Amino acid sequence: GKAYYRFFIHPNELENFADLRNRGPPDPVKWWGTPSSSARTFYVAAESGDTRPFAVKMSLSVVMGGSTRINTPDKLARAVALNDIVSEIHRETGGKIPGSEKTWSFLPEESAILPADASLGGMIVRDLPENFASSIHLPWYALIADRKGQERWIDELFRCSGRKDKLEFVWKDLVRTLIEFHSLIALDNGLTTELHQQNLVLEIDPKTRKIRGFVLRDMDGNWIDYSVRRRLFPELPELTDAAAGEAKLMKYAEAQANQIFSYRNIIRDRKVASTFKYFLSPEDKTELLQLADQTMIRKFNHRFGDLARAHDLDSLETAWETSGGAVRLIDF
After folding, report:
1. pTM for the complete prediction?
2. Taking CA 89 as the corner, what is the angle to CA 308 and CA 236, rounded to the nearest 5 degrees?
3. 75-123 tens-digit pLDDT
4. Using the 8-state DSSP alphabet, how is residue 200 labeled?
5. Where are the alpha helices (DSSP H) in 171-281?
6. 109 closest CA partner among 97, 121, 123
7. Angstrom distances, CA of residue 105 to CA of 44, 128, 201
8. 3-state SS assignment for residue 270
9. pLDDT at residue 329 is higher than 60
10. Pair 97, 166: CB distance under 8 Å
11. Are 133 and 239 in contact (CB under 8 A)?
């Protein structure tokens, strides 16, 4: 008989997808979905309970944060390609963050579907680990969110950490581990990451409230910097003309735009400085940023010091250019 792919459509997009919906048979399975922290990503499960819940990132033709939330072909290709690379990194590290007792994992995105009318956008299927329900998963931004009469997560995690000093807690349990994780993905493997507050999730023990580690989500929010990867892994083939177009899907090529994935913008300013400004004293926050900068500079120089050395935060951003100089590397 004829086979069909199951395609999930955002409730706000039913009219836009009317033609596609009319071309296939109705789905015999009844599905339930609930929004996640992302407006276009739903947690989905069959009403019968026969399937393990999973997540679906659907296209949404609205402008949010300055961009339309349609899953374009390049996003779908990048999600599946990056999924394979991140899977390999996870296998090689055993899910351990170097220099830390904490673990890391990611939400696999092994499949994506694009309709014949690509302008409508496609969908990405995001798997959930089997032990997903055995931990609390907290997006980074929720650390300081109001909990309606309860203490903020950052205060609860500090209280349960056993540490007496706030700066020690933030540095040892959060920021130093974050830099180690960022360095693993970026410096050691040549991926530029969009580790904003929604894409980095804390895994927390529900009983002890101890931080177990980090979970990376949104594979299409990562990019392959092929020039970096070839320096790290010389056995990779050179890009041929035929492959160049395909590679563009995987690489964020605009130097200035690439700053959104940089240490300074994503890690330092958006995560560290903005998250802890109401939790730490001004003096402790200044010391925290100094610790973070020194650690990142040291890691950069350890990995790439034979090419260029960074001495401070500004020189870190201009320390290295790709071969040929066409695309500047913005400190990953």
Report:
1. 0.87
2. 60
3. 898 899 899 999 999 999 999 999 899 999 999 999 999 998 889 999 9
4. E
5. 176-186, 226-232, 241-248, 274-275
6. 123
7. 21, 11, 10
8. helix
9. no
10. no
11. no
In the block, residue with structure tokens 């329900």: 133
Percent of the chain with pLDDT over 70: 87
- pLDDT 10s digits, 29-41: 999 999 887 889 9
Q: Does residue 296 surpass a pLDDT of 60? A: yes
Query: What does the block give as tokens for 288?
Result: 């925290």
Alpha helices in the chain (DSSP H): 18-23, 73-93, 153-161, 166-169, 176-186, 226-232, 241-248, 274-275, 282-304, 313-317
3-class secondary structure, 324: coil
Report the distance separating Cα 137 and Cα 145, nearest Å.
14
Type of residue at 300: F
Place of tokens 């020189």: 315
- Residue 310: is it exposed, middle or buried by C-beta count within 10 angstroms (0-12/13-18/19+)? buried
Residue pair 300/331 in contact by the 8 Å Cβ criterion: yes
Residue for token pair 């927390």: 204
pLDDT in the model for residue 93 = 97
Beta bridge partners of 205: none
